[in-house]
Amino acid sequence: MADITSSLAAPARSTRRFRWSTLADHAILITGSLFMLLPLLVLLQTASTPDIETMKYGPGLYFGDQLDDNFRKAMFEASGFSGQNTGLSMFKNSLILGLGFAFGKIVIGMMAAYAIVYFRMRFATMAFWLIFTTLLLPLEVRILPSYEITQKLGLLNTYTGLIVPLIASATATFFFRQFFRSVPEELVEAARIDGAGPVKFFIDILVPLSQTMIAAMFIIMFVYGWNQYLWPTMITTEEGMYTLVRGIKQIVQVLEGNEIPQYGRANMLAIIAVIPPVAIVIFFQSWFVKGLTESDK
Amino acid sequence: MAKVTLDNVRKVYPNGVEAVTPASFDIKDGEFTVLVGPSGCGKSTLLRMIAGLEEITDGALTIGDRVVNDLDPADRDIAMVFQNYALYPHMTVRKNIAYGLKNRKTPKEVIEKKVAEAAKMLNLEEYLDRKPSQLSGGQRQRVAMGRAIVRDPSLFLFDEPLSNLDAKLRNQMRIEIKALQRRLGVTSIYVTHDQVEAMTMADRIIVLNGGKIEQIGTPSEIYHNPASTFVASFMGAPPMNLVAAELTDETLFFAGLQLPMKTDYRGPVTLGLRPEDLHIDPYGPLAMEVELIEELGAHRLLHGQIEDQRLTVHLSKETEVTTGPLRLSCHPTSLCLFHPQTGERMDCNPKVQSLSARKPQEQHS
């Protein structure tokens, strides 16, 4: 985020006359960026330093030479007993969770919004507000019954169990509903005259029109899914199913005994865990702003 | 190509509002019919019922030989052009035009041929690969027309297609639409609130007011023989002058005007006079106080009063006038009389063909 803000401000008035206010603006921006970057720098520093040094001196000011070594350890060495939870497998699990989560939420949210906006149903408004109020009931509130159901269905330690119980999304439904309502009525009518049925209209017209909205939702939902901690912790007991976010904790916890905690490795994993969400935000950045602010009609 | 028949077609909304009172009329094969009326008169509702976008509460709608009340819009063999074009913004012009055909499983070569034909007809050839957002208003309207044409429907429906365009473009598109309809010979129903569009484009006009049909007729019938004060004041710019007059003893009295009439009716009436049917006559019976002259180049409009009643007079550009008192006359045959309460046309004819007692021969010029 820091990069985005400063690069936006820079070209606007860096040339021509010098102004003290400009300097002050930049000073504030740069200080803020550095402040926000600091935790990341500490991560990087710890990940590059041998664990003993970190243990002895705490976070230092110099980068070490263990980056490569730690990366290999983090990615390819298993930390648990079964030998299945290597960084790579956790990365894969996280990716499946994040993508499945984002994808599922978008599909379900779009279809729910489509039903609410375009079909004359009894209680459509009530159904919408019912969905909307679930925003007030996050996962944590319903975690025990959800767990029980998932367990009884035999979905523990499966991707289905990781993704499906979380897939209904009031947020996505709400955003798509607002978007669909702004699509001109005539477009629906023109499509009806052109012989497009409900399914065709959805696929041929609504989905392409919602592109930017879908991209924006994808970012939010992917990051949300990727960062899930509580649910994967409850659902996955097999190490081969661990996700990155819960795996990092595992490393630091397990190795706190007689041995030196593997700071470098854990921090390396943390960095790896940060990369995909950042990459996605950078990649979809322009779409994101467009999707949430303007509608392309 | 088909004829359209409405038999007591009626629309009542769930909240009990009757948007269209039972309407019956026929539209002949290839005819260009314009539904005209002020906003909220039910003209769009009527059109949307014909299109199938709005349910018909009562009555029967026939297109061609089929009663289509319960058919989907797609199955009614119609095409519609919307006010805001309703083009699919994410599709190119080509895809926009082809979409309806594609949905009907038309073979690819046929689609390509038809799109090319339509594009040629509408001068859209160079824009086929653009998106609607890259086109001007007039071009978008043409694309919307193209989308209608390629389907070879038996009925075109236009829902105020020109009201989003600027005045100049509107005139041009008006002619284009009319010419296109002539060439294709497709039965058309056109909704507008603009009486100029109605007059210039229509083979027949249907004037609507408050969900009720006021009059059906050719533009000239509507203009010269309005069925009610509403039609008289709605059609024509400037509208027909409507003034209060009196009928007694088979004579019509208005200001200095006395005209023998064949009628039994006695009492107040509304007298209708088209601005262009009034003319300057130094010996005329009407004394008007001219307050304002509108110079329109090709002609002039005088606004003034006759005995406290406002009137407008349409004069050719040759006639010199100044504000102040002026004497006017009119052709007795061009008068219209309306019932003062109901506003309906009263059927009564003047007994004489000319007005001025002193110099009758001047009236026939």
What's the short story on this structure?
The complex is a heterodimer of chains A (297) and B (365). Helix content of chain A is 70%, strand content 0%.
The residue ranges of chain A in which pLDDT falls below 50 over 5 or more consecutive positions are 1-13
Cα shape of chain B: elongated
Largest interface (CB within 8 Å) is between: A-B, 19 and 24 residues
Query: What structural category arises from helix and sheet content of chain A?
Result: mainly alpha
How much of the polypeptide of chain B forms β-strand, as a percent range? 25-35%
**CATH evolutionary superfamily of the domain at 87-293 in chain A:** MetI-like
**Mean model confidence by pLDDT of chain A:** 83
Proportion of β residues of chain A? under 5%
Q: Care to describe what's here?
A:
The complex is a heterodimer of chains A (297) and B (365). Chain A is mainly α and 297 residues long. Helix content of chain A is 70%, strand content 0%. Chain A is built from 15 helices and no strands. Chain A is globular. Residues 1-13 of chain A have low confidence and may be disordered. Chain B is of the alpha+beta class and 365 residues long. Chain B folds into two domains: 4-228, P-loop containing nucleotide triphosphate hydrolases (Rossmann fold), CATH 3.40.50; 238-358, OB fold (Dihydrolipoamide Acetyltransferase, E2P), CATH 2.40.50. Chain B contains eight helices and 21 strands. Chain B has helices at residues 43-51, 93-103, 108-121, 137-149, 167-184, 195-201, 219-224, 229-234; strands at residues 4-12, 18-27, 32-36, 58-63, 66-67, 78-81, 155-159, 187-192, 204-209, 212-217, 241-248, 251-254, 257-262, 267-273, 278-280, 286-295, 299-306, 309-316, 324-330, 336-338, 349-350. Chain B is elongated and about 75 Å long. Mean pLDDT of chain B is 89; it is low at 357-365.
